[in-house]
Amino acid sequence: MPFGNTHNNFKLNYKVEDEFPDLSKHNNHMAKLLTKEMYGKIRDKQTPSGFTVDDVIQTGVDNPGHPFIMTVGCVAGDEESYEVFKDLFDPVIADRHNGYKPTDKHKTDLNFENLKGGDDLDPNYVLSSRVRTGRSIKGFTLPPHNSRGERRGIEKLSVEALTSLDGEFKGKYYPLKSMTDAEQEQLINDHFLFDKPVSPLLTCAGMARDWPDGRGIMHNDNKTFLVWVNEEDHLRVISMQKGGNMREVFKRFCVGLQKIEEIFKKHNHGFMWNEHLGYILTCPSNLGTGLRGGVHVKLAKLSTHAKFDEILTRLRLQKRGTGGVDTASVGGVFDISNADRLGSSEVSQVQLVVDGVKLMVEMEKKLEKGEAIDSMIPAQK
Amino acid sequence: MPFGNTHNEMKMKYASEQEYPDLTKHNNHMAKILTPAMYERLRSKQTPSGFTLDDVIQTGIDNPGHPFIMTVGCVAGDEETYEVFKELLDPVIEDRHGGYKPSDKHKTDINAANLKGGDDLDPNYVLSSRVRTGRSVRGFCLPPHCSRGERRAVETLSIEALASLSGDLNGKYYALKNMTDAEQQQLIDDHFLFDKPVSPLLLASGMGRDWPDARGIWHNDNKTFLVWVNEEDHLRVISMQKGGNMKEVFNRFCTGLTKIETLFKERNHAFMWNEHLGYVLTCPSNLGTGLRAGVHVKLPNMSKNAKFEDVLKKLRLQKRGTGGVDTAAVGGVFDISNADRLGFSEVELVQMVVDGVKLLVDMEKRLEKGQSIDEIMPAQK
Questions:
Q1: Which of A19, A58, A77 sits opposite B149 (nearest CB)?
Q2: A237 closest CA partner among A221, A222, A250, A248
């Protein structure tokens, strides 16, 4: 693939307008914000590892998007991408993250004790609770850009870190490439297995190269803590369990994450983080906390109410189907999670989920009894 | 995407065995031939435009292949790839092209007058005849590697050259990105329209980037001569018509190609060609003539005969379904074409098709009458 330094210099033989992509049919954040002038200004730049603007935007060029869903259309190849290409990334980040400014500071708070409540969501309605985030490891380039050597380096470090965990985190690592059929079947049944990305959003950015080399899944014996290695980010960390005890899920999440981070730091490979962007991840949409805290919740009546979407917006929540992003809900069961990632802390985002879901379940109960919910409609958070 | 010079140098920090791909489950020419020692010797190299070894082999790593079908597993990014990476590509070429040696010379002959016969294949059996080849335009990188500026320049040159064709070759260019619905429907009905590649063999090597920018189809008013611009190669040139008059198809093919080549030469952009590899194309399997000449022919009896495969082999022909490569035959109708590309001239390859299909039709007629075909079994060509 062609986008490194030499070929980038080669491309400078062509005028800006000859190289500028045709974005006339496109609907994504990158296409909204990239101008010919901006492209002209940054096209001769590269990060220290050789990531160029064409590398950043290729996925957005190849995937024009959807009239209703705004995809991001650009990715980072390394930590420095967000700095070298700030002319593009800063406006994309502002557009995606509610006007977040280049001067804003992001607050990280993984102290689970700061969460209020969250242990009493009604399990008759809240079927399961889950918190996920991503982490990038300093000193390696990101999935769109990394070499096999780097990816394997990440895997090796991760396996070391993860298999040294004990107590409730004690578990096992399953590399994708040497999984037995029985292991694969079990991981599918547990809904843990991730497969080679088919989404062109990911494949066009280069994240599927060399699949399944260097990829794997670790989970604890209790099947409540799960780490994906080298999928869309270096690490995806997931805490989950049946029922509505989000507090317990979040506690496990925070404790586990911190243990893992310590081990990586010991090896001089801390997580990528800075005080402006928080945790650095491949997709700009996941900057900040990278956190999606959510529940599967039965909202058969509320979901058909005229004000459902409005309520979600005010609570700063989003809905998805139970298959995850871009799926439909089944049987009135929705995946409800925080909409924000950047500009608010982990605790505050999970707090929004806990408080918001509690309110929506109460609304659901009222609607079941034929009562109105107008007085319960919340103010904009 | 990561494979240019700077990131290639970054990769050099990892030992060769850390970067060497895992090819244990692979079955393609590249995987058969690449060794760790070879990888180590070649990994620091790049072509003048910055194409590296990892660029060459990425598609073969990402596509382990099929136990019965041998894919090539490597591509060229520019003309120089075949020289800079000859240590890998020479043995791949030898393996793919019947033992073709680095010292061998390839003969080009597109003088249609040298074809004997070919105008009398029985149209009751031979439903259609077609000849295709590819051409690369010197001075530009190939589809896995070219930038938007380069691709557009190839398109502009092509439009100019094709617009100056006249008579039987008078025609029109349809750019993929601004085709009307009516035009699109017509091209589909004519079986001319090519779509964004879905094959992971092509996508993994980067040929789908920026789709549909600078891709298009030109065809003559008679719909017997067709040129694809910027699909898997810079140009794919196709001559086709109903019935069995392969001579006429080949005449038009040679005339059209020669005219187009002259027009490109006049603009100082000749076709990539050398006396060892003939015409230089993206996939090593298409080197030499890049020519596939074939017919759709009814062989319901012959195709069920125990000797069918052996006959094809002796005639140096291959069968495909009527949807083209990797499709199945429908209603006993097969696509029969030359198996070779390199080491034989265009005239020689079309001659094999003409003579071979004539024989196969004779065999079909015999089998219809319940007669044996043993006396007319051919020797190995």
A1: A19
A2: A250
